[in-house]
Amino acid sequence: MKFRVERDVLAEAVAWTAKSLPARPPAPVLAGLLLSAIGEELVISGFDYEVSSRSQLPAQVEEAGTVLVSGKLLADIARALPNRPVEFSTDGPKVQLVCGSSRFTLQTMPVEEYPALPDMPKAAGSIAAGTFAAAVAQVAVAAGKDDTLPFLTGVRVEINGDTLRLVATDRYRLAVREILWKPEIADLDAVALVPAKTLHEIARSLTGGEFVTLALADTEAEAGQGLIGIEASGKRTTTRLLEGEFIKYNSIFPAEFTGDAVIETSALIEAVKRVALVAERNTPVRLSFSTGQVTLEAGTGDEARASETMDAVFEGEDISLAFNPGYLLEGLGALEAPYTQLSYTTSTKPAVLTGRPAADADHDPAYRYLVMPIRLTG
């Protein structure tokens, strides 16, 4: 095998593909990147039986071939190379890498022991890359971190015609985001439960292109029976779906609210951060609403205490709500709106955060962040 490729293109492709490599591979070959040169392109692949990644980039190929080399080492080398064309060539069981005056010799791994990458599923539709990444980030904050309950660590992807809905929950909060997309089939109806961490990393890494394509291997399965594939700008990745039945989340949202308050988002975030400085682990921040204002408080008894009052558009009977400050801050940060509308029923039932472009504008229901309040004592 012998080929030449541009340094910047190589470094970016290797770095992206190497992100999917396992930190503790179950087999040595799974720590490698597979380099296949043929025609006028180089394909770099990685796979750990759960997630596969594949990058295609232009290359001047003199001799076609395939080699397997250490992914981490190649990523480190590619990042450090001077800005000159990079030449690869095989020399028996080794690979020679030359870039300007820099020379490296890499040991190869047995290609025949490397597992075959899964095929890319059939395309289901496409969506703007930035929109998809932002939507995934908004819901991923609510996904669970407890691997003993795998179905709570995922993002539920629901496709219904030209509507794509993303949902995640850890049982203490729940995030839902709806966006429009371009389906391949007008009446497509499909569901997939995707690992939240993996989906977030993939979506964030594919914002360089204009659109991303989503593909599902088994559109009739609730979860666990197929793959989801995501492709953009010469990069392709697949990941296995999670098993388990997702919760019936629609019934969790209150059918109607008894009141709501509108507050400037950035000011509320800063106030929560300040007041939460005195909050002990697992203790809440209290929001007490009255006409035209909200008072934030934390700390009780002989402990350190903090309070802050700020403007709020509020009408109705006075009420106090208490929330985990971390959950509240993550929801506020995910809104990406100048103003926050907090809608509630009672102090013990779920509250819902939505965004507003202005204090006197309607709220945007496309993104909803539901958070369970903490019951106040005393």
From TrEMBL:
Ranges where the DNA polymerase III beta sliding clamp C-terminal domain occurs: 251-363
SMART domains: POL3Bc
A molecular function (GO) term: 3'-5' exonuclease activity
One cellular component term from this protein's GO annotations in UniProt: DNA polymerase III complex
Cellular compartment(s): Cytoplasm
CDD domains linked to this entry: beta_clamp (cd00140)
Residue ranges of domain DNA polymerase III beta sliding clamp central in the record: 128-246
Domain DNA polymerase III beta sliding clamp N-terminal per the UniProt entry, residue ranges: 1-118
Keyword vocabulary terms for this entry: Cytoplasm, DNA replication, DNA-binding, DNA-directed DNA polymerase, Nucleotidyltransferase, Transferase
SUPFAM superfamilies documented for this protein: DNA clamp
Biological process, per Gene Ontology: DNA strand elongation involved in DNA replication
Free-text function comment from the UniProt entry: Confers DNA tethering and processivity to DNA polymerases and other proteins. Acts as a clamp, forming a ring around DNA (a reaction catalyzed by the clamp-loading complex) which diffuses in an ATP-independent manner freely and bidirectionally along dsDNA. Initially characterized for its ability to contact the catalytic subunit of DNA polymerase III (Pol III), a complex, multichain enzyme responsible for most of the replicative synthesis in bacteria; Pol III exhibits 3'-5' exonuclease proofreading activity.
Subunit structure: Forms a ring-shaped head-to-tail homodimer around DNA.
Protein name as annotated: Beta sliding clamp
